[in-house]
Design goal:
By secondary structure, this protein is mainly alpha-helical. The chain is built from three helices and two strands, in the order ααββα.
Length: about 120
Amino acid sequence: VPQQHVNRIFEKVSIDTAKLIKISRILDFNFFSLYCDIPNNVYAYMAAVALGDGNAMNNIGDAALASIIEQQRQKIEGMEENRTLLDDQINGLKDQISQFKSQLDDKNELITIYKQRVNQ
């Protein structure tokens, strides 16, 4: 993002929520936490906490647990898809770099041949 664009964002009195969410994700910082009391830890909603031998354990229902597991599984699948796409992009860029190196070698060889003929 150009510096001028960033400067314009900082100069505004307000910012669109969607834009702030995007910036928060990119910078890996939750700006909303500055304005509201958001817990840092994830707590099970309506979970019963049982205290035994000094360890705290959240007891949640099977349906809630299955839902959480499914959400995490979907996140992992999305991350794996992103990883696959990024791997493909990296391989494509490596191929381009290889082609550019080959073209550069060819150009250098042509320059050398040209210089040899000019000097003759």
